[in-house]
Amino acid sequence: MKNINKNVVLVVFASIMAIALLGALFLAVYLNASYAKAQFYSSQISNAAVRCQAYQDAFVHTKKIDHVQGFMRSYEDLVHNLELLSGESDVLTKGEIESAENKIREYRDLFVAYKEKYIVIGLTDESGERGALYRDIVSAEETLESLKEYYLLSVLLSCRSNENKFIIHKEMLFVDKFNENYDILKESVQRSGLDLQIKGEILAQIKQYKSDFSILVEHIKEVGLNNSEGISGNLKNALLAINNQVLDIQNTVLNRLGKTTRTIYLVLCISSLLILMVLFLGVRLIRFNLRLVSEIHKRKVVEEELAEVNTNLERTVQNRTMKIASQVKDQEKINKEISTLNEFSDYLQRCSSSDEALLIIRDYANRLFPTDVGALYLLSEDRNSLILKTNWGGRQDLFKEAFRPDECWGIRMAKFHYVNREEHGLHCDHFIGAVETCYLCVPMRYQEELIGLMLVVCNQGECLADDKMKDCTVRQRQRLVVTIAEHFSLALSNIQLRENLREQSVRDSLTGLHNRRYMLESLDREVSRVVRRNEHLAIVMIDIDFFKRFNDTYGHEAGDDVLKRVSEILLRHVRDEDILCRMGGEEFLVVMSRVSRDVVVKRAESIRQAFENVEMHFGSSLHENITVSIGISFFPDDNSDISVVINLADKALYEAKKTGRNKTVLFSQSMIEGD
User: Fold this and answer.
1) What is the pLDDT at residue 452?
2) Mean of the pLDDT values across residues 373-388?
């Protein structure tokens, strides 16, 4: 009994000591957590500084204002985390925090000055001083081109080339070359036989161009011709100072964190020794109670045997319940797949374009194969390659953008091709690198013609995690993949057929240009846009002069050749955003938007002049040059009804025909009054 009391006293004493040491351990852990928090803030400061540098470098190279906004967000994160770090007053001194804040503000101010200077210089060729320089050179080029002074224009283009090289490379060599070319240009203008007034205007334009370029050179020199000069050099030095400051902060935090960690280890070791002592003494106490525990244990053995029987019975019932639930779940999964597949088929049948169908198949592939990766290829127009159109599963780096049809065994064999991960050989060559998991290739055909290929690749994590897995989920769902491919093949063929019929309905079969129907449909859209933006449209009506004589003299085949040749010339002289169509017979119509009246007339004249240099050959005969007459009207300047504006352009065309042909005539109210 005395031994028991003695052991109890020792256990209590050791427990009190262990509690005291655990309290000290808690205090050390608390300090360690504070320093760990400071370490987190310092790492956030380092990350924010890195982001600032990344956005700075991005702005330096791309001059996009979005990177300035990213820089300011990163700067705010840097300041915010520095404020959080300063809240841990026992980590860094007030002087260290203030020094870091001053360097960060100086860096921010230098970057803002760098940005403001480049806004003055111009972020693009159309803004700032670069925009003024661009307008100077365009004005001078238009003047020289209108005067057909091509030598002077070539010298001016040499000046512009050296200007662009200086802006890109920032080397003074190109400034010297620019000045040499400018002197040559100035001297050439003075020696030219141009009229004195025109010569003065050209000299004034190129003088203004040189003056603007000199200002641009000075501002770029202020920014710095290399990273060690001007604002760029100061910005680099400021960034280096911030990085050094951040490194000092991290070293300070890590040193203090290391000290608290060592203290924790020491206290933990001493506490462990005392706890072991308590356990040793406790074991001695337990030995005195083993006899009583032995009797209790015998009683519990019987109870445990009964509990084991009950547990086995419950486990058997549970296994059977889980098996039934698994079967129900599998059936629900099959029903859900069938429902999704029917929904997928309905959506495909209602698609109006190939792009819509690709979006739908990507969406439903993600639903039907949520753990797998896949891609869809379509055959190119020349039928020499398969082009990647969409993919799912987040592994864009796995698939080639294009490959030849003979690189896939599924296409060669004209049936689906399954590759097990343990098989060697017969692997397809349409992946980037080696594929370690199972995959399935399903060729898509319509009426025995290949139109594309569907690939489904097993999820790498699941496939490689189980060494016993021989047939992965891709193999098990092979029928579903084949069904989806068949549905998409049929839908895509129907869509392509509808698109071809639509294209044929809006194209002129002879010239390949859009027809009157397409023009009327497009005009409704253009008129709505013009009215909404308070702009105007130009209607340019073009008619071939003496076209009937071509047909009567050389036959209809020659007339068709003339129409084709006229179509080719018109296509070369209209913009992509213009609407060009054949109205019928020898009449063509061009709808121009977002251009001034003067530009419309100038472009119409350039079209008319382009035909004067065209000669048509019919057999051994040489016919005179083709000429066209052009009539122009404007919506809504001439009339607010677009159909009336087209008729007015036709009246202007008739006026051009009546007054001698081979000319461009703008509609005027006098044409109506004359009628």
Assistant:
1) 83
2) 83
Q: What is the pLDDT of residues 590-619, one digit of tens each?
A: 999 888 889 999 999 999 998 887 777 665
Class of residue 269 by CB neighbours under 10 A (exposed 0-12, middle 13-18, buried 19+): exposed
Residue 86 main-chain phi, psi, to 5 deg:
-65, -20
Report pLDDT for 26. Answer: 66
Helix 290-349 with 354-368: angle, nearest 10 deg: 160
Q: Where are the alpha helices (DSSP H) in 88-149?
A: 94-121, 128-147
Q: Which residues contact 430 (CB under 8 A, 6 or more apart)?
A: 377, 386, 399, 400, 403, 407, 408, 453, 455
- Using a CB cutoff of 8 Å and minimum separation of 24, what contacts does 219-228 make? 219/117, 219/120, 219/121, 219/129, 220/121, 220/166, 220/167, 220/170, 222/117, 223/114, 223/117, 223/118, 223/121, 225/170, 225/171, 225/172, 226/170
CA triple 669-670-675, angle to 5 deg: 105
Q: How far apart are CA 447 and CA 443, in angstroms?
A: 13
Is residue 456 a contact partner of residue 372, using CB atoms and an 8 Å limit? yes
pLDDT-based confidence at residue 649 (cuts at 50, 70, 90): very high
Cα–Cα distance, 222 to 226 (Å, whole number): 11
Q: Would you say how long the chain is, in residues?
A: 675
Average pLDDT, the chain: 77
Cis peptide before 636 (omega within 30 of 0): yes
Map residue 555 onto helix, strand or coil: coil
Tokens of 234: 């100061």
